[in-house]
Write a structure and sequence with these properties.
Elements: H1 6-17, E1 29-35, E2 40-44, H2 57-67, E3 73-80, H3 93-102, E4 108-113, E5 116-121, H4 122-125, H5 132-140
Parallel strand pairs: 3-4
Antiparallel strand pairs: 1-2, 1-3, 4-5
Bound molecules: tetrahydrodeoxyuridine.
Length: 141
């Protein structure tokens, strides 16, 4: 169950990217997050005319997963569309923080754009993570 089938995740992320709602940036992103259960959770970016309300693909995938009861994750794939000019789409800072809440630092994140690929550990993308340990300490006082 825990084996990572990267092709499965790339296909899922590419599929959901087609549903991205990005009329303002035209920058379409798809995310596929694999849970320990074997289930795959997908998300695309959803923009808003009030720009700050835009939600990224990764966070939509994480929130779907948590709502479904999944709490442990083994891999994430992030696919950017042609609109990225062929560039890989690294997760934004807000998404890194949200991913760090739910996923282990050694979880692999694959970035895909066309034939381009790169793979990173979450912990390398968000070093010196502000996590629950800081809040726990303050709350214990
Ligand atoms: N975007 C994502 O979906 N994920 C990221 O990590 C970076 C940015 C989206 C948000 C917005 O709809 C578009 O890309 C341009 O910023």
């Amino acid at each position: 169950m825990n084996k990572i089938d990267w092709n499965e995740l790339i296909q899922a992320a590419e599929g959901v990217r087609q549903n991205a709602y990005a009329p303002y940036s035209r920058f379409t992103v798809g995310a596929a997050l694999k849970g320990k259960s074997g289930r795959v959770y997908i998300g695309c970016n959803v923009e808003n005319s009030s720009f700050g309300l835009t939600m990224c693909a990764e966070r939509n995938a994480v929130f779907q997963a948590v709502a479904a009861g999944e709490r442990e994750f083994i891999a994430l794939v992030l696919v950017a569309g042609e609109s990225s000019g062929g560039a890989l789409c690294p997760p934004c800072g807000a998404c890194r923080q949200v991913l760090a809440e739910m996923c282990a630092a050694d979880m692999p994140i694959a970035l895909v754009a066309g034939q381009k690929r790169s793979i990173h550990r979450l912990g390398d993308l968000l070093p010196l993570t502000f996590d629950h340990t800081f809040v726990d300490q303050a709350a214990a006082k």
